[in-house]
């Protein structure tokens, strides 16, 4: 076994200098590895934060998609209930709206006619009542004239 005392002093300085240089090299390598490790850790933290952000966005988009899908299903159900085929387009809807508008206008005209008939019937009753009232008045005046 070699001990420090068995090595000549001139060689001890060389061995010490070589050991010191080796330790400095190892220290620089450790520093470089520490810098690289710190960089990797910062990158991992940044990636983890970005992942959380993307997951939040995805959750938000999935909720919006579910809402939109639900609205589309409600629209399709309502369209079927109104008698439209699943493949109907805007022209079909426009045509149907025009038909409904025309039917509504016809119904309004019919309601005005019915109102006119109701008013006419009321007017006829009033005229008939007036005629009867005049006849009674005339008979009453005749009786009054005879009794004098």
Describe it:
With 148 residues, the chain is mainly alpha-helical. It has a domain at 11-88. 89% of the residues lie in helices and 0% in strands. The protein has helices at residues 9-81, 90-147. The longest helix has 73 residues, at 9-81. The radius of gyration is 53 Å and the shape is rod-shaped. 0% of the residues are buried.
Provide the descriptors you would attach to this structure in a database record:
148 residues, mainly alpha, 2 helices
Quick gist of this model?
Helices cover 89% and strands 0% of the residues. The chain is an all-alpha fold and 148 residues long.
Described by strand count, sense and barrel closure, the largest sheet is: none
**Spatial separation of the terminal alpha carbons:** 172 Å
Structural class: mainly alpha
The strand count comes to 0
Give the overall form: rod-shaped
The total count of helices amounts to 2
Mean pLDDT: 90
Q: From the alpha carbons, calculate the radius of gyration and give it in angstroms.
A: 53 Å
What is the share of helical residues?
Answer: over 70%
Order of helices and strands: HH
* Uncertain residue ranges: none
As a percent range, the share of strand residues is: under 5%
